[in-house]
Amino acid sequence: MTDKVDWVAVDWGTSNLRAWGIDAAGAVAVARTSPNGMGKLTREQFPGALSELLEGVESQSGQPIQVLICGMAGARQGWLEAPYLQAPTDLRGLLDGAVHPEMPDVRLAPSILPGVCQKVPGSDNVMRGEETQLLGLAALNPGFSGVVCMPGTHSKWAQLSGTRIERFATAMTGELFEVLRNHSVLRHSLGGDLEGPGRNDGFAIGVQAGLDHPERLLGQLFEVRAGSLLSGRQPDWCAGYLSGLLIGSEIGANREWIGNAEVPLIGSAALCALYSQALTRIGVRSRLVDATEAVLAGLKAARQFSS
Predict the structure, then answer these.
(1) CA–CA separation, 285 vs 243, rounded Å?
(2) 225-246 residue pLDDT tens
(3) If you ran DSSP here, which 8-state letter would residue 185 be given?
(4) What is the DSSP string of 215-249?
(5) What is the sign, positive or negative, of the torsion defined by CA atoms of 172, 178, 183, 187?
(6) pLDDT 10s digits, 146-170
(7) Pairing of strands 17-22, 7-12
(8) pTM, entire model
(9) E strand residue ranges, the chain
(10) Fewer Cβ neighbours under 10 Å: the N or C end of the chain?
């Protein structure tokens, strides 16, 4: 069966590859996913992975299909490195900064969007993929100005003014949780069922501790181990406490950014719910923005704004 599309939107992550064929009316005509994320491919395997994913997809116009790609395909370890735009920057210029890798499959004409970097002494930073979601948020909420939180393995906090990203910061919260859980002394307190009823109680205590004293994080981390040894804390409680402590410390450390305005949260529903709980504790409202909806809106906007 052949699927006819006007162009293709692609989000190429580290673990997975997602594509959406867009018709002339701007609607999603076909959606496909693949486990061929950047982390599983050599540079030479990227064209084949894209061709395989889009097998049977053809152009409505008869011309090569424009494939607009965001994410890790443009990383240094990816298909073709896409240079960063330097913040502050207007995200409407994403497509103008794209690179165009060679593609043996003549049906497809890929373009890889750049990431965004921040070159400030003491605050150097980079993002890839999140900038497209931020452009999508701006497209979905015209005139938005404020702080956006993007929970994840490497959580991002960004100051957005319309389509302009003013500054941003990264917190390795998700990765740190996994490293501590699997490769530190805390692993001895985190073996077993981590999703039991004690997890919510542990999270509540941990998140408050992190919010109150983010500067004490290094010492508070060891309370996971001490609590299991001295107070009989079970693995589910310890996992909740560790998660809450890390999230609370992240938010507490970024308190000066947040202010009192509503904070959009872009990410998985489950993880954003934890950040929402933490923000509520400091009197800040939040709202969930679907990550897929944001990235699709961002890819559409990048294509629309191209000069």
Answers:
(1) 20
(2) 999 999 999 999 999 999 999 9
(3) G
(4) GGHHHHHTHHHHHHHHS---HHHHHHHHHHHHHHH
(5) positive
(6) 999 999 999 999 999 999 999 999 9
(7) antiparallel
(8) 0.94
(9) 3-5, 7-12, 17-22, 28-34, 57-59, 65-71, 85-86, 89-90, 108-112, 116-118, 125-127, 145-150, 155-161, 164-171, 263-267, 286-290
(10) N
